[in-house]
Amino acid sequence: MSNWKPSTTVAAVVERDGRFLIVEEETPDGLRLNQPAGHLDPGESLPQAVAREALEETACRVEPEALVGVYMTRFQRPALGLDVSYLRFAFACRFLAEEPGRVLDTGIVRALWLSADELRAASGRHRSPLVMRTVDDWLAGRRFPLGLIHTDPSCLR
């Protein structure tokens, strides 16, 4: 019997003036581009997680307004024994404010605002194929109400 479970992650799609909030981060494969994203922590809802991750990685406070999509991808590195599946919840978020001087998460080099064309031109530097996919889905108008996601109070701190 298998004990397989995907890792649950969240990602923030934040657009302002035609540009998307992106992080440049250090990875084993070099500097990569990604949405502000990370893992769901115990005791938080998915919308809480995406707001926290965006703040920690970009020093920007955001508010999730809709679900863009739910995505699944697999990351494999057989030589290192890595085989991880990710279940990613991407949220359309509204930019609220920046917190200048806030220290960013370890590994985050900087936050950038890139147009969809600039992001597409840098596809070789994307952390995963989901980076552009979530932006393309956002551009296509994909938005689902947050009420689609229910978090039972037993899950919250």
Automatic annotation (TrEMBL):
Subunit and partners: Monomer.
Documented EC number(s): 3.6.1.-
Domain of life: Bacteria
Keyword Hydrolase: yes
Enzyme superclass (EC): hydrolase
Membership in a protein family: Belongs to the Nudix hydrolase family. NudJ subfamily.
Cofactor(s) demanded: Mg(2+)
Protein name per its UniProtKB record: Phosphatase NudJ
Domain Nudix hydrolase residues, every copy: 3-136
PROSITE patterns for the chain: NUDIX
Ribonucleoprotein listed as a keyword: no
Keywords: Hydrolase, Magnesium
Pfam families: NUDIX
UniProt xrefs under InterPro entries: NUDIX_hydrolase-like_dom_sf (IPR015797), NUDIX_hydrolase_dom (IPR000086), NudJ (IPR033713)
Record-level Gene Ontology MF annotations: nucleoside diphosphate phosphatase activity; ribonucleoside triphosphate phosphatase activity; thiamine diphosphate phosphatase activity
